[in-house]
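Subject: Predicted fold for GTPase HflX, 430 residues

User T.R. writes:
Posting the sequence so we have a shared reference for the thread.
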Amino acid sequence: MFDRYEGGDYAVLVHMDLPAEVDREDLSELQLLADSAGVKTLGVVTASRSSPNPKYFVGSGKAEEIAELVKERQASIVIFNHALSPTQERNLEKICQCRVLDRTGLILDIFAQRARTHEGKLQVELAQLRHISTRLVRGWTHLERQKGGIGLRGPGETQLETDRRLIRGRIKNILKRLEKVQKQREQGRRARKRAEIPTVSLVGYTNAGKSTLFNQLSTADVYAADQLFATLDPTLRKIEVDEVGTVILADTVGFIRHLPHDLVAAFKATLQETQDATLLLHVVDIADEHYQDNVDQVTEVLEEIDAGDVPQLMICNKIDKLDDVDAKIDRDDEGNPIRVWVSAQQGIGLSLIYDALHERLGRQMVNLQLKIPPSMGKLRGTLYSLNSVAEEQVDDSGQFNLAVRMSAVDWQKLQKQFDHQLQQFVQSTS
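User M.O. replies:
I've generated the C-alpha coordinates; pasting them so everyone works from the same file.
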Protein backbone atom coordinates (compact mmCIF):
# COMPACT_ATOMS: atom_id res chain seq x y z
CA MET A 1 0.00 0.00 0.00
CA PHE A 2 2.84 2.42 0.80
CA ASP A 3 5.87 3.31 -1.28
CA ARG A 4 8.06 3.28 1.84
CA TYR A 5 11.31 1.74 2.96
CA GLU A 6 11.12 -1.71 4.54
CA GLY A 7 11.66 -1.85 8.31
CA GLY A 8 14.29 -3.92 10.07
CA ASP A 9 15.73 -5.03 13.40
CA TYR A 10 18.73 -2.67 13.61
CA ALA A 11 17.78 0.76 14.87
CA VAL A 12 19.02 4.22 15.69
CA LEU A 13 16.99 5.73 18.53
CA VAL A 14 16.22 9.45 18.67
CA HIS A 15 15.19 11.29 21.83
CA MET A 16 14.59 15.01 22.20
CA ASP A 17 14.36 16.93 25.47
CA LEU A 18 11.45 19.35 25.35
CA PRO A 19 10.64 21.87 28.10
CA ALA A 20 6.86 21.26 28.11
CA GLU A 21 5.87 18.52 30.57
CA VAL A 22 3.10 17.30 28.24
CA ASP A 23 5.66 16.57 25.47
CA ARG A 24 8.38 15.06 27.68
CA GLU A 25 9.30 11.40 27.28
CA ASP A 26 11.75 9.06 29.04
CA LEU A 27 14.79 7.81 27.06
CA SER A 28 15.16 4.66 29.21
CA GLU A 29 11.53 3.80 28.41
CA LEU A 30 12.24 4.12 24.66
CA GLN A 31 15.13 1.68 25.07
CA LEU A 32 12.84 -0.73 26.93
CA LEU A 33 10.21 -0.40 24.20
CA ALA A 34 12.83 -1.12 21.52
CA ASP A 35 14.07 -4.19 23.43
CA SER A 36 10.48 -5.40 23.84
CA ALA A 37 9.98 -5.07 20.08
CA GLY A 38 13.05 -7.26 19.45
CA VAL A 39 15.08 -4.39 18.00
CA LYS A 40 18.86 -4.14 18.37
CA THR A 41 19.93 -0.57 19.14
CA LEU A 42 23.01 0.54 17.16
CA GLY A 43 23.10 4.11 18.41
CA VAL A 44 21.21 6.82 20.29
CA VAL A 45 20.89 10.44 19.18
CA THR A 46 19.72 13.01 21.71
CA ALA A 47 18.79 16.63 21.10
CA SER A 48 17.28 19.57 22.92
CA ARG A 49 14.91 22.16 21.50
CA SER A 50 12.35 24.63 22.81
CA SER A 51 9.77 23.24 20.32
CA PRO A 52 9.69 20.61 17.54
CA ASN A 53 10.82 21.56 14.03
CA PRO A 54 7.79 21.39 11.67
CA LYS A 55 9.85 19.72 8.91
CA TYR A 56 11.98 17.10 10.71
CA PHE A 57 10.81 17.36 14.38
CA VAL A 58 14.55 17.76 15.17
CA GLY A 59 16.60 20.55 13.59
CA SER A 60 17.92 20.15 10.03
CA GLY A 61 21.51 19.79 11.31
CA LYS A 62 20.46 17.05 13.74
CA ALA A 63 18.52 15.30 10.93
CA GLU A 64 21.76 15.22 8.88
CA GLU A 65 23.58 13.80 11.93
CA ILE A 66 20.96 11.02 12.25
CA ALA A 67 21.31 10.24 8.52
CA GLU A 68 25.11 10.01 8.87
CA LEU A 69 24.81 7.64 11.86
CA VAL A 70 22.30 5.45 9.95
CA LYS A 71 24.74 5.20 7.05
CA GLU A 72 27.76 4.58 9.28
CA ARG A 73 26.09 1.89 11.45
CA GLN A 74 24.05 0.45 8.54
CA ALA A 75 20.84 0.76 10.52
CA SER A 76 17.57 -0.31 8.89
CA ILE A 77 15.18 1.82 10.93
CA VAL A 78 15.10 5.09 12.93
CA ILE A 79 12.80 5.17 15.96
CA PHE A 80 11.71 8.47 17.50
CA ASN A 81 10.60 8.69 21.14
CA HIS A 82 7.84 11.10 20.12
CA ALA A 83 4.73 11.29 17.96
CA LEU A 84 5.63 12.42 14.44
CA SER A 85 3.33 13.95 11.86
CA PRO A 86 3.00 12.10 8.52
CA THR A 87 4.97 14.90 6.80
CA GLN A 88 7.80 14.69 9.33
CA GLU A 89 8.00 10.91 8.83
CA ARG A 90 8.19 11.33 5.07
CA ASN A 91 10.85 14.05 5.22
CA LEU A 92 12.99 12.05 7.65
CA GLU A 93 12.74 8.89 5.52
CA LYS A 94 13.85 10.90 2.51
CA ILE A 95 16.98 12.20 4.25
CA CYS A 96 17.82 8.99 6.20
CA GLN A 97 17.07 6.61 3.29
CA CYS A 98 15.45 4.10 5.68
CA ARG A 99 12.17 3.47 7.52
CA VAL A 100 11.26 5.98 10.27
CA LEU A 101 8.93 4.97 13.09
CA ASP A 102 7.50 7.14 15.85
CA ARG A 103 6.61 6.14 19.42
CA THR A 104 3.01 5.28 18.51
CA GLY A 105 4.12 3.09 15.59
CA LEU A 106 6.59 1.26 17.85
CA ILE A 107 3.92 0.57 20.50
CA LEU A 108 1.56 -0.68 17.78
CA ASP A 109 4.28 -3.02 16.50
CA ILE A 110 4.78 -4.47 20.00
CA PHE A 111 1.03 -4.91 20.39
CA ALA A 112 0.91 -6.74 17.05
CA GLN A 113 3.63 -9.15 18.24
CA ARG A 114 1.98 -9.79 21.61
CA ALA A 115 -1.69 -10.30 20.67
CA ARG A 116 -2.63 -13.94 21.23
CA THR A 117 -6.42 -14.20 21.11
CA HIS A 118 -8.78 -13.52 18.21
CA GLU A 119 -10.10 -10.43 20.04
CA GLY A 120 -6.61 -9.11 20.78
CA LYS A 121 -5.59 -9.45 17.12
CA LEU A 122 -8.73 -7.64 15.97
CA GLN A 123 -8.10 -4.79 18.42
CA VAL A 124 -4.50 -4.41 17.28
CA GLU A 125 -5.50 -4.38 13.61
CA LEU A 126 -8.14 -1.75 14.32
CA ALA A 127 -5.59 0.48 16.06
CA GLN A 128 -3.10 -0.03 13.21
CA LEU A 129 -5.66 0.81 10.53
CA ARG A 130 -6.71 3.98 12.36
CA HIS A 131 -3.06 4.99 12.64
CA ILE A 132 -2.34 4.18 8.97
CA SER A 133 -5.42 6.08 7.76
CA THR A 134 -3.88 9.35 9.00
CA ARG A 135 -0.74 8.57 6.98
CA LEU A 136 -2.35 8.00 3.58
CA VAL A 137 -2.12 11.66 2.58
CA ARG A 138 1.66 11.89 2.58
CA GLY A 139 2.57 12.87 -0.97
CA TRP A 140 3.59 9.40 -2.19
CA THR A 141 3.17 10.02 -5.90
CA HIS A 142 1.74 6.62 -6.85
CA LEU A 143 -1.18 7.16 -4.47
CA GLU A 144 -2.23 10.32 -6.29
CA ARG A 145 -2.38 8.78 -9.77
CA GLN A 146 -5.42 7.19 -11.28
CA LYS A 147 -5.03 3.53 -12.10
CA GLY A 148 -4.32 3.03 -15.79
CA GLY A 149 -3.45 0.35 -18.30
CA ILE A 150 -5.32 -2.62 -19.75
CA GLY A 151 -7.80 -4.02 -17.20
CA LEU A 152 -7.01 -1.28 -14.66
CA ARG A 153 -8.94 1.68 -16.05
CA GLY A 154 -11.76 2.48 -13.65
CA PRO A 155 -14.32 5.24 -13.11
CA GLY A 156 -11.60 7.76 -12.23
CA GLU A 157 -10.85 6.60 -8.67
CA THR A 158 -7.29 7.33 -7.61
CA GLN A 159 -5.16 4.79 -5.77
CA LEU A 160 -5.40 7.00 -2.67
CA GLU A 161 -9.21 6.93 -2.77
CA THR A 162 -9.16 3.15 -3.29
CA ASP A 163 -6.91 2.66 -0.27
CA ARG A 164 -9.10 4.90 1.86
CA ARG A 165 -12.24 3.00 0.82
CA LEU A 166 -10.64 -0.39 1.55
CA ILE A 167 -9.44 0.78 4.97
CA ARG A 168 -12.88 2.20 5.86
CA GLY A 169 -14.50 -1.11 4.88
CA ARG A 170 -12.04 -3.15 6.93
CA ILE A 171 -12.47 -0.90 10.00
CA LYS A 172 -16.26 -1.26 9.72
CA ASN A 173 -15.93 -5.05 9.52
CA ILE A 174 -13.60 -5.23 12.57
CA LEU A 175 -15.89 -2.99 14.65
CA LYS A 176 -18.81 -5.33 13.93
CA ARG A 177 -16.81 -8.36 15.04
CA LEU A 178 -15.54 -6.58 18.16
CA GLU A 179 -19.10 -5.58 19.04
CA LYS A 180 -20.03 -9.26 19.00
CA VAL A 181 -17.10 -10.09 21.33
CA GLN A 182 -18.10 -7.24 23.65
CA LYS A 183 -21.66 -8.60 23.89
CA GLN A 184 -20.29 -12.03 24.83
CA ARG A 185 -18.10 -10.46 27.54
CA GLU A 186 -21.06 -8.42 28.79
CA GLN A 187 -23.11 -11.61 29.18
CA GLY A 188 -20.31 -13.09 31.30
CA ARG A 189 -20.16 -9.95 33.45
CA ARG A 190 -23.94 -9.96 33.96
CA ALA A 191 -23.81 -13.62 35.00
CA ARG A 192 -21.10 -12.82 37.56
CA LYS A 193 -23.17 -9.91 38.90
CA ARG A 194 -26.23 -12.14 39.24
CA ALA A 195 -24.11 -14.61 41.19
CA GLU A 196 -22.74 -11.68 43.24
CA ILE A 197 -19.15 -12.63 42.40
CA PRO A 198 -16.78 -9.70 42.99
CA THR A 199 -14.21 -8.92 40.29
CA VAL A 200 -10.70 -7.75 41.19
CA SER A 201 -8.80 -6.26 38.25
CA LEU A 202 -5.01 -5.87 38.15
CA VAL A 203 -3.96 -2.52 36.70
CA GLY A 204 -0.63 -0.73 36.61
CA TYR A 205 2.14 0.69 34.50
CA THR A 206 3.54 -1.73 31.96
CA ASN A 207 6.25 -4.05 33.35
CA ALA A 208 5.15 -3.41 36.98
CA GLY A 209 4.79 -7.16 37.57
CA LYS A 210 1.04 -7.65 37.12
CA SER A 211 1.22 -10.97 35.28
CA THR A 212 3.77 -12.40 37.72
CA LEU A 213 1.49 -11.44 40.60
CA PHE A 214 -1.52 -12.83 38.72
CA ASN A 215 0.27 -16.17 38.28
CA GLN A 216 1.21 -16.29 41.98
CA LEU A 217 -2.30 -15.50 43.21
CA SER A 218 -4.19 -17.73 40.77
CA THR A 219 -1.61 -20.47 40.06
CA ALA A 220 -2.23 -19.70 36.38
CA ASP A 221 0.37 -19.87 33.63
CA VAL A 222 0.06 -16.47 31.97
CA TYR A 223 3.00 -15.28 29.87
CA ALA A 224 5.12 -13.04 32.11
CA ALA A 225 8.43 -11.48 31.08
CA ASP A 226 10.61 -8.50 31.86
CA GLN A 227 9.22 -6.69 28.82
CA LEU A 228 6.81 -3.87 28.17
CA PHE A 229 3.31 -5.06 27.21
CA ALA A 230 4.01 -8.74 27.93
CA THR A 231 0.23 -9.11 28.46
CA LEU A 232 -2.36 -7.80 26.02
CA ASP A 233 -5.34 -10.10 26.24
CA PRO A 234 -7.47 -10.03 29.41
CA THR A 235 -7.23 -13.27 31.40
CA LEU A 236 -9.75 -14.22 34.10
CA ARG A 237 -9.24 -16.76 36.90
CA LYS A 238 -11.14 -17.69 40.05
CA ILE A 239 -9.51 -17.33 43.47
CA GLU A 240 -10.95 -18.03 46.93
CA VAL A 241 -10.88 -15.35 49.63
CA ASP A 242 -11.80 -16.17 53.26
CA GLU A 243 -15.36 -15.15 54.22
CA VAL A 244 -15.84 -13.59 50.78
CA GLY A 245 -15.85 -16.77 48.67
CA THR A 246 -15.10 -16.91 44.98
CA VAL A 247 -13.50 -13.81 43.47
CA ILE A 248 -12.73 -13.26 39.77
CA LEU A 249 -9.17 -12.03 39.24
CA ALA A 250 -8.54 -10.21 35.92
CA ASP A 251 -5.12 -9.47 34.40
CA THR A 252 -5.17 -6.56 31.94
CA VAL A 253 -2.90 -4.69 29.53
CA GLY A 254 -0.31 -2.40 31.12
CA PHE A 255 -0.62 1.35 30.81
CA ILE A 256 2.08 3.70 29.54
CA ARG A 257 2.50 7.46 29.43
CA HIS A 258 0.97 9.12 26.37
CA LEU A 259 -0.77 5.86 25.40
CA PRO A 260 -2.10 6.55 21.88
CA HIS A 261 -5.81 7.37 21.91
CA ASP A 262 -6.41 4.88 19.09
CA LEU A 263 -5.13 2.14 21.40
CA VAL A 264 -7.31 3.26 24.30
CA ALA A 265 -10.30 3.17 21.94
CA ALA A 266 -9.32 -0.14 20.35
CA PHE A 267 -8.80 -1.87 23.69
CA LYS A 268 -12.07 -0.67 25.20
CA ALA A 269 -13.40 -4.23 25.46
CA THR A 270 -10.24 -5.30 27.27
CA LEU A 271 -10.38 -2.34 29.65
CA GLN A 272 -14.09 -2.97 30.33
CA GLU A 273 -12.95 -5.50 32.95
CA THR A 274 -11.33 -2.54 34.72
CA GLN A 275 -14.41 -0.30 34.47
CA ASP A 276 -16.73 -2.95 35.92
CA ALA A 277 -14.36 -4.22 38.64
CA THR A 278 -15.39 -4.24 42.30
CA LEU A 279 -11.82 -3.40 43.30
CA LEU A 280 -8.64 -2.47 41.42
CA LEU A 281 -5.27 -3.82 42.48
CA HIS A 282 -2.94 -1.04 41.33
CA VAL A 283 0.43 -2.78 40.96
CA VAL A 284 3.41 -0.42 41.27
CA ASP A 285 7.10 -1.18 40.64
CA ILE A 286 8.19 0.51 43.85
CA ALA A 287 11.89 0.03 42.96
CA ASP A 288 11.51 2.28 39.88
CA GLU A 289 12.78 5.76 40.66
CA HIS A 290 9.98 7.19 38.49
CA TYR A 291 7.25 5.17 40.19
CA GLN A 292 5.20 8.25 41.22
CA ASP A 293 5.10 9.46 37.58
CA ASN A 294 3.92 5.97 36.56
CA VAL A 295 1.20 6.02 39.24
CA ASP A 296 0.02 9.40 37.91
CA GLN A 297 -0.08 8.08 34.32
CA VAL A 298 -2.18 5.06 35.33
CA THR A 299 -4.58 7.32 37.25
CA GLU A 300 -4.89 9.51 34.14
CA VAL A 301 -5.78 6.56 31.89
CA LEU A 302 -8.27 5.21 34.48
CA GLU A 303 -10.03 8.59 34.41
CA GLU A 304 -9.99 8.45 30.60
CA ILE A 305 -11.80 5.09 30.53
CA ASP A 306 -14.31 6.11 33.27
CA ALA A 307 -12.76 3.85 35.90
CA GLY A 308 -11.47 6.62 38.15
CA ASP A 309 -14.20 6.05 40.77
CA VAL A 310 -13.50 2.33 41.22
CA PRO A 311 -11.94 1.65 44.69
CA GLN A 312 -8.21 0.86 44.61
CA LEU A 313 -5.75 -1.13 46.70
CA MET A 314 -2.14 -0.29 45.86
CA ILE A 315 0.31 -3.22 45.59
CA CYS A 316 3.88 -1.97 46.09
CA ASN A 317 5.74 -4.69 44.18
CA LYS A 318 9.45 -5.64 43.83
CA ILE A 319 10.42 -4.88 47.47
CA ASP A 320 13.21 -7.47 47.05
CA LYS A 321 15.07 -4.80 45.04
CA LEU A 322 14.98 -2.35 47.96
CA ASP A 323 17.02 -2.38 51.17
CA ASP A 324 15.37 -2.82 54.57
CA VAL A 325 11.78 -2.99 53.27
CA ASP A 326 9.57 -5.75 54.66
CA ALA A 327 6.22 -7.10 53.52
CA LYS A 328 3.46 -5.15 55.31
CA ILE A 329 0.01 -3.60 55.01
CA ASP A 330 -0.41 0.19 55.23
CA ARG A 331 -3.78 1.42 56.54
CA ASP A 332 -5.69 4.70 56.48
CA ASP A 333 -6.96 6.56 59.56
CA GLU A 334 -10.00 4.28 59.74
CA GLY A 335 -7.88 1.12 59.64
CA ASN A 336 -8.74 0.14 56.04
CA PRO A 337 -5.93 -1.45 53.96
CA ILE A 338 -4.68 1.01 51.32
CA ARG A 339 -1.22 -0.43 50.39
CA VAL A 340 0.37 -3.88 50.50
CA TRP A 341 4.17 -4.24 50.15
CA VAL A 342 5.17 -7.48 48.37
CA SER A 343 7.54 -9.17 45.94
CA ALA A 344 5.55 -11.21 43.41
CA GLN A 345 8.72 -12.66 41.86
CA GLN A 346 10.01 -13.96 45.23
CA GLY A 347 6.55 -14.82 46.61
CA ILE A 348 7.00 -12.46 49.58
CA GLY A 349 3.90 -11.03 51.29
CA LEU A 350 1.29 -12.71 49.08
CA SER A 351 -0.77 -13.84 52.10
CA LEU A 352 -1.07 -10.16 53.07
CA ILE A 353 -2.83 -9.47 49.75
CA TYR A 354 -5.42 -12.12 50.64
CA ASP A 355 -5.83 -10.53 54.09
CA ALA A 356 -6.34 -7.10 52.52
CA LEU A 357 -8.82 -8.51 49.95
CA HIS A 358 -10.74 -10.18 52.77
CA GLU A 359 -11.05 -6.86 54.58
CA ARG A 360 -11.82 -4.71 51.54
CA LEU A 361 -14.23 -7.04 49.73
CA GLY A 362 -16.03 -8.04 52.93
CA ARG A 363 -17.09 -4.40 53.20
CA GLN A 364 -17.91 -3.91 49.54
CA MET A 365 -21.50 -5.22 49.62
CA VAL A 366 -24.37 -3.15 51.05
CA ASN A 367 -27.85 -4.36 52.05
CA LEU A 368 -30.61 -1.75 51.73
CA GLN A 369 -34.32 -1.51 52.44
CA LEU A 370 -35.79 1.02 50.02
CA LYS A 371 -39.30 2.52 49.90
CA ILE A 372 -39.82 3.85 46.38
CA PRO A 373 -42.92 5.84 45.22
CA PRO A 374 -44.59 4.85 41.92
CA SER A 375 -43.17 8.02 40.32
CA MET A 376 -39.64 6.58 40.65
CA GLY A 377 -40.18 3.77 38.16
CA LYS A 378 -36.84 4.57 36.48
CA LEU A 379 -34.97 3.89 39.76
CA ARG A 380 -36.86 0.60 40.24
CA GLY A 381 -36.04 -0.45 36.67
CA THR A 382 -32.34 0.42 37.17
CA LEU A 383 -32.21 -1.68 40.36
CA TYR A 384 -33.63 -4.66 38.46
CA SER A 385 -31.18 -4.14 35.58
CA LEU A 386 -28.36 -4.36 38.15
CA ASN A 387 -29.84 -7.68 39.41
CA SER A 388 -29.79 -6.26 42.93
CA VAL A 389 -33.44 -6.72 44.02
CA ALA A 390 -33.70 -9.64 46.44
CA GLU A 391 -37.36 -9.11 47.41
CA GLU A 392 -40.19 -6.73 46.51
CA GLN A 393 -43.55 -5.94 48.12
CA VAL A 394 -46.15 -3.33 47.17
CA ASP A 395 -48.03 -1.65 50.05
CA ASP A 396 -51.61 -0.27 50.03
CA SER A 397 -50.43 3.19 48.89
CA GLY A 398 -48.74 1.67 45.83
CA GLN A 399 -45.20 2.22 47.09
CA PHE A 400 -42.54 -0.41 46.37
CA ASN A 401 -40.74 -1.88 49.38
CA LEU A 402 -37.49 -3.38 48.07
CA ALA A 403 -34.83 -5.47 49.76
CA VAL A 404 -31.70 -4.63 47.80
CA ARG A 405 -28.18 -6.08 47.87
CA MET A 406 -25.48 -4.55 45.68
CA SER A 407 -21.82 -3.58 45.66
CA ALA A 408 -20.87 -0.33 47.33
CA VAL A 409 -19.45 0.82 43.96
CA ASP A 410 -22.81 0.32 42.21
CA TRP A 411 -24.60 2.15 45.03
CA GLN A 412 -22.21 5.10 44.69
CA LYS A 413 -22.73 5.18 40.91
CA LEU A 414 -26.51 5.04 41.43
CA GLN A 415 -26.31 7.93 43.87
CA LYS A 416 -24.48 9.99 41.24
CA GLN A 417 -26.97 9.00 38.52
CA PHE A 418 -29.92 10.22 40.63
CA ASP A 419 -28.19 13.40 41.89
CA HIS A 420 -27.64 12.03 45.40
CA GLN A 421 -31.40 12.02 46.15
CA LEU A 422 -31.66 8.31 46.99
CA GLN A 423 -31.02 8.61 50.73
CA GLN A 424 -34.63 9.79 51.25
CA PHE A 425 -35.86 6.34 50.10
CA VAL A 426 -33.53 4.31 52.34
CA GLN A 427 -35.25 2.68 55.33
CA SER A 428 -32.18 0.78 56.64
CA THR A 429 -28.71 -0.35 55.56
CA SER A 430 -26.19 -2.96 56.64
